[in-house]
Amino acid sequence: MLAAGLFHVDLGWIILMGLICGIPAWFASGILWGTWISQRVMVNRSAIVLAGAWLLVD
């Protein structure tokens, strides 16, 4: 509401522009980058499980 008031446009235009910018940004940062980085970073799952178990021990 504040952005619509500052720019003197309808709230529908703000929502539409947010979707036009947000959906490609979500796709690029979430799906494309996630797929790309998962092929380059190897995670030792057993170390993560052991570290989590160690943190739970009091």
Characterization of this structure:
With 58 residues, the chain is mainly alpha-helical. The chain has one domain. The chain is built from 3 helices and no strands. The N and C termini lie far apart (49 Å).
Summarize the structure.
The protein has 58 residues and is mainly alpha-helical. Helix content is 79%, strand content 0%.
Task: List key phrases describing it.
58 residues; mainly alpha; 0% strand; elongated
The gross shape turns out to be elongated
- Helix-strand string: HHH
* Rg (C-alpha, Å): 21 Å
Number of strands: 0
Number of domains: 1
**Structural class category:** mainly alpha
Give the rounded overall mean pLDDT.
83
Number of helices: 3
**Share of residues in helices:** over 70%
Strand content: under 5%
